[in-house]
Each structure stands twice: as structure tokens, then as C-alpha cells.
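Justification of computing resources. Each target in the renewal requires a structure prediction run like the one illustrated here; the chain below, 617 residues long, is used simply to show the kind of job we budget for.
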Amino acid sequence: MTTRRDFLKTGAGAVACSALLRAKPASGAREYHVAPDGNDHHEGTLSRPLKSISATSAVAMPGDVICVHTGIYRERVTPPRGGASDANRIVYQAASGERVEISGAEVIKGWTPIQGDIWTVTVPNSFFGSFNPYSDVIHGDWFNPKGRVHHTGAVYLDGEWLAEAATHDEVLQDSATAALWFAQVDADTTTIWAQFKGADPNKRLVEINVRQTVFYPEKTGIDFITVRGFVLCKAATPWAPPTAEQIGLIGTHWSKGWIIEKNVIRHSICSGVALGKYGDQWDNTSANSAEGYVKTIQRALANGWSRENVGHHIVHNNTIYNCGQAGIVGSLGAAFSTVTGNTIYAIHVRRSFTGAEMAGIKFHGAIDIQITGNHIYQTCLGLWLDWLAQGSRISGNLFHDNDEDVFVEVDHGPFIFDNNIFLSSLSLRDRSQGGADVHNLFGGALALLPYDSRLTPFLKAHSAAIAGFHDNPPGDSRFYNNVFVRRADLSVYDKVPLPMMMEGNVFLDGAKPSRFEQHPVVKTDIDPGLRLIPKKDGLYLAIKLKKAWIDAEPRRLVTSALLGRASIPDLPYEEADGSSVSVDLDYFGKARNKSNPAPGPFEYPSRGDLMLKVAQN
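Resulting C-alpha cells:
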């Protein structure tokens, strides 16, 4: 049987342009072709293609497919309209088997040597049009520049970006560490100095940022768009706090029903994919204020934030890396969405600036969101659910080599983490209530943060309607059938004021149970030998499993009935459609033993020393 996770991980349904067109129910739907040798005055047929994606988007109507052929398209795609429904959308797709890059950068020649590896070039400001990234200063709520100025510009040598120097003098020092660039914008020109280590920039590919974004509508409410199969890269994106318009390298801009799948999304100064908030006159006016974000939510409700109007996006099977702030970000506009099968890495690794919005995935308002089957690593923070995580299920994800894997902040629940693998030194930072952790593998520590007096909202079930506000005392968490290893210590929950439910967990190699634990298996002297091993076809987890861990204590299948109700919103643990939850499949989609399920993410295929493929290459 093909499970939901099988579909999400394999990307079933990604078909050729002509097949998509045949599947369209709308009469009169067209397939437009775009190629570098085309002409924007052509009809857009395969033999007479258009030249730019932007020109094609201007004429595409609901039901149409835009099929883009091999080449680099240096343009910003600003779709003026979307589809009419989920079944009658506008599809932007790379032609089957062809490499199509949409870039926010332009090639720059005419560099002049200064000294050593330092070169300079001057370009007219007219080259940038109305937006010059080299005078565009990164700023916003919860942004910390670390004592210097940062711009959204960048310089790239053979596709890889250099680092911005803090001063002109710094770039002239020809540092032996990271290669640097610096820019100065005058009334008519922009001058850039850059260090090209051992390279002649006039003989190599050198590019600079020109466009703020690559694929992003100017207007809100551009619904039902599919973006599939592209390389999307090199955008001068702004800082994306939850209180301002969130512009990513690709973004949905307060719309509904986008599908963003099978793309490579890379080199965004701040965010890769933005599913978030629209802009208004209150953008970036609410830093360090809980009241400010409450007002942001209230204004969003007045601007159509509802299950009917916003969200319901699918972000699927993308590779996202080299983003300075977040791989995927979304404040309120990501609600009711599915984020699955993505590989997200190298996020906020340069750390030239900082703030409070950096993560592989950072969501405010994660309502009924499904985050499933993602591989997140080499980030400051893998997943951050901040405010209003309610009805969400985070299932079957692999986290490793992050500063920390998950942070849940001032959420009241209910939300579920099940069948995840957490292997970073800090697995979970908890400042929420109503969370349920079920059948996970925790290879790192757990940190419980103290009482938070902020009054944060909870919602009516499966909606964006505010039901009330509450402060944030620790507790009201559930831990069922997990495996904890080494640094994991559940005794941090021993003195919480709210009730805890803990049952069926296994503690290995020094991991410690809480006083609330029912029927634990504690084997402090057993080291399961956890380690990740890369191979040609994927990433494997080495682990030692023991039948005795199952037989030592019986375990119950985790269902809505067992989990009960999250105390503050007084809501049950349900699927996004309101049906009952049953954690009856494991990490691989294998059926669990309903009478005595195995602890951890795997319904054990065998015993002893195992090598389990946990991620594809």
C-alpha cells in the first residue's frame, strides 16, 4: 500500500508539461513555452517560444501551464494573477529533464585590479533600476546587526558568495580568511571592491545581486500557483520578522493554495521560502513587545486571515540552503499548510548578523500545519514554532548537526511531534504547553524554560479565530513511547505546575526519567551506538536495538483518546481535518504493533546492530 508519507517523500505526481495540460479540466487551457532564444512577441508554442517568464506570466490565465526550457533567466517573476481553484491553477514548471535557473543576480565584467587579490568595479545606479541592494540596509523587528551595517547586496564568484566587509579599510586588507566585498553608493554610481583569491574576475563568472526577490507577487491574494523544478537563486531579500511583510527568494505574499515543489532554492540574503505576512504601515514597529504581535494578529484578522482565505500551501521536495535567516519562514500566512520532504541545510551559518527569527523552518501561527519527512541540518535551529502552534503535526523528520533541533515558544497546543529523529546536542527547547512527544528518538538534551508571563492567544479548533489569551506556565506536556539517549533528562519537568503525562519511554546511556514517568525502561549502562553514516544512496543511522526494550514493559498505541485534551485551549489532539489521531505508522510508514508498539521511531525490523536508511541523497 502507498502511504501518505510514501507520496510525500517520492514526489509522485511531478509530471511533464504536456501531461499537466491534459489533466486540466478547464476548457481553453494553454501550454506556453519559454526559451532563451525565444521572443516575447511569439505565441509561446514549442516552435515559437517566448523569451521571458515574466512576459508569459502577464498573459497566462487559470488552467495554463508555463513550460520553461534550459537556460538562466535573470528576472523577477511577479505573477499578476493566480488560478481559480486547486484544480484550475497556473503552473510554472521547468521542462522535464531540463535545468532552468531563475536568478536575482547579473553578471559583472570590467573589474580593475587594485592590489594583490583586490579588484574594483563601478556601475551606474541606473543599472539597478528602483532597487539598489548596496544601499538597502538590513533592518527590522528583532534584528541584531552586531554593531555594524549589513546590506542585501552580495558578490558571487563561480556561484558562491563572498562575505560583506564592515568597512572599506577591511576589504583593502586582503584578509587571508573569508573573501570579502564592500560597496559604496554615491549619487550616480555604485562602486564595489572585492577580494578574489587567486582569480581574475574578468575571466571567471562574477555576479552581483540586483533583484530583491526572484518569484513573488506584488499584490496579495494571488492564489493557486504551482512553481516546480527550478533552480531559484541569488536574491537580495530583506529581514523577515513576524510583524512585517515577509519577502523570500520565493514567496506567496498572503495568498492561498500555492505548490512549491522539487526546486533548488539557494543563496538568499535572508529567507528562502516565505509563506508569510503582508505589509502595512505598522511593519517593523513592534520589536520586543508581545502586545505588538497581538495587534499584528488582530490586524491580520481584519485583513482576511482565515481558513478560507490564506495558507493551505504545499512546500514539497525542495532543496533549500545558503539562506542567511531562514530556509522557510511564515507568520500567520503559513497556516493550514503542508511542508514535507524538503532538505534544508546551511541556514544562518555565516552569522555576520543575528536576531530572533533564524531557523531552518520558522513559523508563527502554525495552525493545522503538517511538517513531515524533512531533513534539516547544519542550522542554528532546525524548527522554531513561535506563537499559536495549534493542531499541527510534526512527523518523521530528521534533525542533526544543528545548534538545537526544535524550539516551541509560547504555544498552548495541542500539537504533536511523532516519529522524529533528533540527534543534535540540544534536541528540544520547551517554552510551551500542550505538546505531545510520541515515538521520537532524542539523542540530545532537553531544556525547559521557566514561566513566561506574556499573554499569548489560543484559537478555536481548526480556525484562525482567537478564543482567548493565557500566560505560559511550564507543563501540560505528554511523552509517550520515546527513546532517550545520553544527555536527555526528563527530570527538568519534575517541578512544573501543570500536569504531565509520561509513559512507555526508554532511557539509555545515562538518560534520566522524570518523577512523572509511568513504566519506564531505564538502561543507563547501554550505549545504542547512535551515529549517522553517509553512503552513496543516502544517509544511514547506525543503532543497536534490543527486544528486551519492548518486552520489559507493555506500551499502549497512542491515540486521541490516550492524549486527552490540551488544558489551556481545552481542545483534543486531532488531525487537521478534525479526525482522530492514531500514531499507528512508524518513521518508514510501517504499521505499528497495535497491542504493544515498539518505543522510538522504528517498529523494529530486526534486533541487534542495524543500519537504517533515514534520508535519501
